[in-house]
Amino acid sequence: MHPTRNDLPQDTRAAIVKLLNERLADAIDLQLQAKQAHWNVRGPHFISLHELFDKVSEEVTGFIDVIAERASALGGVAEGTLAAVSSRTTLPAYSLTISDGRDHVDALSKAIAAFGKQARAAIDQADSAGDANTADLFTQVSREVDKQLWFVEAHLEAKR
């Protein structure tokens, strides 16, 4: 840990930095999965899904930045390398063979939901560790991820 005048105890900061890096890996993976969908979507709803997936990627990039910066602010190191992300992510692997729009919507919505679940768990973990600011950060992330999930899942609604 780097020295800081942050008044959270060092063991608390170390635990929170570990938690932040775990969620950072998931966020980077989610951002890449959204880009994978964006680059490879095909079908009759191409343009709307192409733009939607790019918007999801953009929103998740914001999560990545705030999570990483919080780790650094606490005296930790934000571990956003490919090696760190691939060894830590908890998200389901994204298929490289998908092209159909609905299949991308299904796969990306599963990844967004998995990330949202982890973000909600991080709220409780940060709160239990005594770091209300990180709990608040994950509350904001969770709220935004739920909105992105809603936008994506809306494309799964079946015709009646």
Features:
Ferritin, mainly alpha, 160 residues, 5 helices, elongated, EC 1.16.-.-, 73% helix
Fold and architecture overview:
This is DNA protection during starvation protein. It is an enzyme of class 1 (oxidoreductase). Residues 18-157 form the Ferritin/DPS domain. This protein has 160 residues and is mostly helical. The chain has one domain (10-155): Up-down Bundle (Ferritin). Helix content is 73%, strand content 0%. It has helices at residues 10-40, 46-73, 82-88, 101-129, 132-153. The longest helix has 31 residues, at 10-40.
Computed over alpha carbons, the radius of gyration is: 17 Å
CATH C-level name:
Mainly Alpha
In CATH terms, what is the architecture?
A: Up-down Bundle
Shape: elongated
Order of helices and strands: HHHHH
- For this structure, the CATH topology is Ferritin
Structurally, the number of domains stands at: 1
pLDDT averaged residue by residue = 95
Structural class estimated from helices and strands: mainly alpha
Low-confidence stretches: none
The number of helical elements comes to 5
- Helix fraction bin: over 70%
